[in-house]
Amino acid sequence: MRRVIISRLLRLAATLLAVTFLTFSLTALLPGDPVNAILGVESNQDPEVVAEIREDLGLDDPFLVRYFNWLADALRGDLGQSYITDQDVMETILQRVPVTAQLAFMAILMALIAAIPIGILGAYKQGKWQDTVSSAGVQVALSIPNFIMGIFLIWLFAVQLQWLPSSNWNRISDQGLIENLKTAILPASALAMTQMAIFSRLVRADMVATLQENYILAAKAKGMNDRFILFRHALRPSSLSLMTIVGINFGALLGGTVVIETLFAVPGLGFRLINAINQRDILVIQGITVFVAAVYVIINTVVDLLY
């Protein structure tokens, strides 16, 4: 086990190094001069200010020198400071990651609550009308993009029924849990739909195979009721793959909520990343991208070890 953990940690370090290098390379290849984005119109720029900014960003240094200088600072937790907002990049991430993490957690939880019963029902009633109806519904949910589902939810619950707000975000620390959930439920539901479809199909496929095992037949021969067999004997071994996919998708959602956060005006990492891209705020782009990628890789490693 010690050898396995060491090998996974070494792979983790190599992956993180590759991620940081690719992220830095891609942002360096963006067209245009970042100084122009910071200062505005080129004709109104002060040469001394331009020179100072280029020196601070290391834009005149060779690429590898800039990368290793940035990497050394990043390892110390210093991701730089935004020239647009004057805010520390790490502080920006720490302020916004709870919002994105809450959306991802709520989406995963909502998806699991719906997916497990649907998957079990499809496997238990394999080939019958219940399986056909649930499979068709899952296929529809899988085919609808998140942003289309988000627009539909806004139209239904915010415009027509006026039960929930269509945008904005109430933090738990400021407005309390109830007001927070009112602003979180719609974007989380939009994210949960696709996850629910993926999880339910996975549970159904694994449960179908598990229900053919000899120990399930033995349990039926002993007269155990179907509910006990499904939830105690069949669900546990069928949930191993589900656990892996849940971990992977949770990490993916941390960086995959960009469209939904923009649609609902949620102040998370994705919303800030879009603003940074529009403003060409390179240090914020690099910081958020590397943070999300690092969390994704770390979660995958933890899930791998648990699995």
Indicate the percent of residues in helices. over 70%
Radius of gyration equals 24 Å
Structural class: mainly alpha
Q: Could you say which overall geometry the principal axes of the C-alpha atoms support?
A: globular
Tally of DSSP β-strands: 0
Largest sheet: none
Low-confidence stretches: none
Q: What is the element layout, followed by pairings?
A:
Elements: H1 2-28, H2 34-39, H3 47-57, H4 63-75, H5 89-124, H6 129-143, H7 146-160, H8 172-175, H9 177-210, H10 214-221, H11 226-238, H12 240-255, H13 258-264, H14 269-279, H15 282-306
Helix pairs in contact: 1-15, 5-6, 5-9, 5-12, 5-15, 6-9, 7-9, 7-13, 9-11, 9-12, 10-11, 12-15, 13-14, 14-15
Structure description:
With 307 residues, the chain is mostly helical. 79% of the residues lie in helices and 0% in strands. α1 packs antiparallel against α15, α5 runs antiparallel to α6 and α9 runs antiparallel to α12. It starts with a helix and ends with a helix. The mean pLDDT is 83.
Which descriptors would you attach to this protein?
307 residues, single chain, mainly alpha, 15 helices, 79% helix
Structure summarized in a few sentences:
The protein is an all-alpha fold and 307 residues long. The chain has 15 helices and no strands.
